[in-house]
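Contributing new records

If you add data, match the layout below exactly. Sequence lines come first and carry their own label; structure lines follow with theirs. Keep one chain per record. Anything else will be rejected by the validation script.
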Amino acid sequence: MFEYAPAPESVRPDIKEHYGLFIDGEFVDGQDVFKSVNPATEEVLFTVAEAGEADVARAVAAARRAQETVWGPMSGTERGKYLFRIARLLQERAREFAVAESLDNGKPIKETRDFDVPTAAQHFFYHAGWADKLSYAGLGADPKPLGVVGQVIPWNFPLLMLAWKIAPALACGNTVVLKPAETTPLTALMFAELCQEADLPAGVVNILPGAGAAGAAVVNSPVDKVAFTGSTAVGRAIAKAVAGSKKKVTLELGGKAANIVFDDAPIDQAVEGIVNGIFFNQGHVCCAGSRLLVQESVADDVLARLKERVSTLRVGDPLDKNTDIGAINSAEQLARITALTEAGRGEGADVWQPACDLPENGFWFRPTVFTGVQQSMRIAQEEIFGPVLSVLTFRTPDEAIAKANNTPYGLSAGVWTEKGSKILWAAERLRAGVVWANTFNQFDAASPFGGLKESGYGREGGRQGLEAYLDV
């Protein structure tokens, strides 16, 4: 294997020592303060104000005023200009945002640089184009905005999830109160500064950092819609909280995706797809291909090539451009991954990890492959949300589909085969909102994304994703 010299990222964003809440176009103090920690070093990056119920009430009032007096009456053409401006500013500051995301989240710089930030800008470009064409979206001749949208996003893709939520909401004429995850508020606060730079009218976007209590306050406030991405447990609580109200809700929740490799699959291509499916972003992906279902006749070959490929992955400094797997986002998440991995050992599965040195400080976990996995094991049923792959085998296509669907989740799936007819046959039978064929983790702003069963409901992205932000 080639040895790589260190290739550290040279750009360092101007991170302030303290950030306030962003309400009505200005940064203001909150009731409390908490620290944001670099998961790769455990060093404090900055402190940030924490939103309370009174802060949420102020933000919702500001958003309501902006929606009724400025943003709602504004023409779609003018709203689109603001979204185009935001997209261009994101592109201009792309490297700065990429480095900040890696510092605050722990993911490798090559992922934030090549995926997170460009895709976030793409969502603003795409939805800017829809802003003056909503009556042609097939959702009614005269769709109207809902009003104020409360949005709660997770820590695994902080900037991208913000873009997924804010871009369609603004394009449809709504205003936003958004709560970023407590462990990754940095790029959301930098986005607030970007909104100021774009001269976005005050109150159109409000950013309220905080923990679960702040998110609950947003959900329970007098907003017209709630959009949430996160765990199934929290999603279930949100559904109960808004039941009986007039609030529209979209929930993008957990997953336990099956990545199915048939015996006629292009093996080397499939191995790359397996690695990308589970080890991208340290496995911190709702639609991660965390269950590998491989046909028995090629299982030994696939596993041998997979282990060889995983052995080449580089774990370490997220700001090194050679790094493939960065830090786990928090000590709490690392503890969960470790506990479920030990449960897999205890239930009798065979565990394999490549030999690699881990940094002394920070939150780290080696890429892990379990074989001898049974359907009843926790590692085959529960979302681990880490770089842990469970491998199962099957003999017939029908058995593959049965095992793939034997999960309470239904967010995504992958199919690997050279036969187009088999792809269509499998996709029709898989109970998943997204099915990838001979690829994995491919996203586009024009393509709707969402799940079935306990993976939530509603769609984000594409023409279909506009409906959740419109009164039609």
